Structures are given as C-alpha cells and as structure tokens.
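Structure in, sequence out. Go:
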C-alpha cells in the first residue's frame, strides 16, 4: 500500500477512533482506577471525602515519583536512584524545616528541588560521559543517596510548618477530609509536564532520544543535553515526592527503603503505558497508575487479606502487568 493510500485510509477513519487509538491506554488506566474506587467504596462501611482525601494525599508521593521516572524512561534511560532521592529530600526537608516559619519552609522546599535537579542532572552527565549503562550508575546513586539520607538524619525526626503540611494534605496536621489541595498539587505539575513534553522542542527531544538515539543525533538533537535534562527533571520530581512525604508524615525517616519505592515507580509507569524501551508514553496516564498501585494495599486490607499475603498478591499483580506491557510492546514493534 502506498503512502498516499495510507493517508487516505487514515483520513477516512473517524476522529474518535483515531483519538482512541492514540489515547486508549490512558483511558483504560483511568477507568481501572475508577472501578477500583467504586469497588473499595463497596467494601468499607462508609466512603466519603475523608477516604478520597486519604487516597489522593497518601498516593501523591507515588505519583510524583512515577512522573520523574517516566520522563527519564521516555528519554531512553532508567533511574534506579529516584527512590533514594525521595528519601534524601524527605529527611533534608524535615531537618531544615523544623522550627521554621511557613515562608522559610517554602524557600527551603524550592532550594531542595533545585539541588535535587542539579544532583540528578550530574548523574545523567556521568552516564553520558562514562558510557556506562544507566542501570549501573543509577544503582550506585541509590546507595549514595540512601547513605546521605542517613548522614543527614540518622534517626526518624524533624518537622515542618503547619502551612506546608496544608499545601499537600489540606490539613495542618496532615490528616483531613479536604482532597483539593493535593489534587491541585498533582494536576498543575502534570499539566505543565504534559504541555512541555508535547509542545516544546526540548520536550519532544525526549521522545526522539528514546525512540532512536542515532536518528535524534542526526536530526540535530543534542543527546548529552537531553540526557541531563531528563535526569534533572526526574530528580526534581523525586524530590517533590520527598517533600510531599514530609508534609504527610510531618517528619523525615531515612530508614525508608528507597529501592522498594523505585520498583513501585517502575511498575507504575509500565501500568501507565510508558514503554521501558523509551519513546512511548505520557505522564497523564502515570497519575492513575501511581494511585492504583498505592490503592491496592487498602483494597486488600478491606477484603481481609493478611498483610504478608497482600504483599505477595501485589508483587504478582505487578509482575503480570509488566509481562502484559512487554507483550504489547513486542507486538507494537513487530507491527511497525
């Protein structure tokens, strides 16, 4: 079939079918999340704003971490250190914000985001210069960040301002029935990222790099710069997840296992339709995917499943999701 014939066939396809073909996975993930919400509401005696706020508030760090990982993977890399960066940002914020005013906690948060972007951007620079695979360098960064977190705050502690907690949770004590501040904190960054990655040259270069590095280089895209940008953005979102954790818990804890958080982020982006081979996916679908993976634990608890068995079930479901995503990606590559 000639190119002209293909164009005519595409033009004859209804717009809604073309839209669904491009965004079907995203729609499917959102439907899955809503189905789980309705299922959970049927399992518990009462379901209201408090439960909605709990899901959104406590799930927001998972969403932010998954977004950071998605940006890096779309650009053709993978960062095993994002979980460690979350922990480092969490304890650093808790230590520096303790006893500070609301204004100072905001300035501290901005400084932590900038520092995280610079640190993780340097990880991308090291990968580009050394030519060592991303997975090796970032595995080392995971242990470095986790060790730095223990040095900053050896024991759980620290604090933050009531206003800072309200920004992420809608409550000055971190627990409340107002989900809107957390929803806004998720929606605004996601929309900005979606616009940047789909409408700007630097954002589109991430997809070009992830699809074909050599072709991207020949088209004039600066590979090193794109790699550094992707890791810097990913580090900033990992730190954003750490700040959200500080606001929710009201303290820092360096004993949190960053590796587990990283694996959850990888599972979330796969569920969200981001191909681990790079160049495919959107941050919009990562939002319900991250919330869904967080949401599995409360659902299993409501079903009366033992916590230890619940972890096994969650692990099996994650493996199944990744296998299905792998088969879909294999079929897509074979078709193309």
């Amino acid at each position: 079939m000639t190119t002209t014939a293909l164009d005519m066939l595409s033009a004859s396809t209804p717009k809604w079918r073309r839209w669904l073909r491009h965004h079907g996975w995203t729609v499917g993930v959102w439907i899955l999340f809503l189905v789980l919400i309705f299922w959970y509401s049927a399992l518990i005696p009462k379901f209201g704003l408090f439960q909605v706020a709990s899901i959104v508030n406590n799930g927001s760090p998972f969403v932010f971490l998954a977004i950071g990982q998605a940006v890096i993977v779309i650009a053709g890399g993978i960062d095993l250190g994002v979980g460690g960066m979350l922990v480092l940002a969490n304890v650093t914020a808790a230590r520096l914000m303790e006893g500070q005013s609301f204004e100072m906690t905001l300035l501290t948060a901005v400084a932590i985001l900038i520092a995280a972007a610079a640190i993780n951007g340097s990880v991308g620079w090291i990968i580009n210069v050394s030519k060592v695979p991303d997975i090796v360098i970032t595995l080392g960064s995971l242990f470095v960040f986790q060790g730095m977190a223990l040095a900053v705050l050896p024991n759980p502690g620290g604090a933050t301002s009531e206003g800072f907690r309200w920004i992420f949770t809608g409550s000055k004590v971190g627990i409340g029935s107002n989900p809107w501040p957390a929803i806004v904190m998720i929606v605004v960054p996601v929309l900005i990222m979606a616009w940047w990655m789909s409408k700007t040259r630097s954002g589109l270069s991430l997809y070009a790099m992830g699809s074909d590095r050599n072709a991207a280089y020949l088209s004039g895209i600066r590979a090193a710069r794109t790699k550094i940008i992707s890791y810097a953005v990913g580090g900033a979102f990992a730190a954003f997840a750490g700040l959200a954790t500080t606001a929710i818990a009201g303290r820092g804890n360096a004993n949190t296992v960053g590796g587990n958080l990283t694996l959850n982020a990888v599972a979330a982006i796969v569920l969200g339709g981001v191909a681990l081979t790079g160049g495919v996916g959107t941050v919009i679908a990562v939002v319900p995917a991250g919330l869904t993976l967080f949401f599995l634990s409360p659902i299993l608890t409501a079903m009366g499943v033992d916590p230890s068995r619940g972890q096994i079930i969650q692990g099996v479901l994650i493996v199944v999701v990744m296998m299905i995503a792998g088969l879909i990606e294999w079929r897509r590559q074979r078709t193309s």
